Amino acid sequence: MERRRVELGWMRIFAEIGKTGSLSAAASALGLTQPAVSYQIRRLEEQLGVSLLKRQHRGVELTAEGQRLLDVVAKSVGEIDELARRFRTETDRPTIRLRTDFAFSSLWLIPRMHAFRTLYPDVDIQIVATQRTEKGRSDDGDVAVVFGRRSEFDRGAVLLLPEKVAPVCTQGFLDRYGSLSTPDDLAKTRLIHLDTEEPSPWFDWRHYLAEFGVRRDGQAGQGDLSFNTYSLVVQAAIGEQGVAIGWMGLVDSLLETGMLKTAGATLEAPDRGYWLLPPRTRDAQSDLLAAWLMAEAGIN
Predict the structure, then answer these.
(1) Is this prediction's pTM over 0.70?
(2) Is residue 171 located within the same domain as residue 254?
(3) C-alpha dihedral (7, 9, 12, 15), degrees to nearest 10
């Protein structure tokens, strides 16, 4: 069903008369009576002080003044109708909301958004990034990507990125401070930390070094840096401020371009990572986004 057009009063009436050449035809097209249309035109002629129409045996003909007015009115009415159509189209565009954290959104999702826009140009995606996302599935259609353990999620959750980490820094940092060939070397260098609640929900430096039986002495941590978001941790590593724990999947592109280098052994925690949580009530849009996320993560 066609949406009701914007009310434009005499302008739309006059444009319709100019289009049809008939008061009765204009009235029929606009759902008005012919006397109502005639009354609007008489009022308009009185206000302008000129005659706009010549009554003919069959229909009406525009006067010279009427034609000049129609040129302006028809263009204006057409442009307003087109603008109204665009407004409605934009309002009706499907929108999907994705809840996740700053690290996933900035390092994994945003670099891939061009691919999503290319595939689905008529779908809008709203990214809601928070420091700590809720672990449960939403009731309002939101898709979520959340870091956690397998035991924290229900059967509907899909593991997108299993936790896999390695120390990372720049080649310039290695050139300046020497090779970091062993966990003991890492324990003695300047480390960049991500502030976490205790116990840490992911690998931190204490747990990473403990996997190799290494503990730092009290003096080793002097000069370390700590940040409350992983994006800042990565920026500090790129800025040659120290060595950070690099989450594979989040820093892959930086490793591929050589902006960062691995500086130690890789560790994995296959029961932890970023999990895709579809909403409790699924629809075509949430299924579309979930399928795209899994495809981008290499999950068939």
Answers:
(1) no
(2) yes
(3) -170
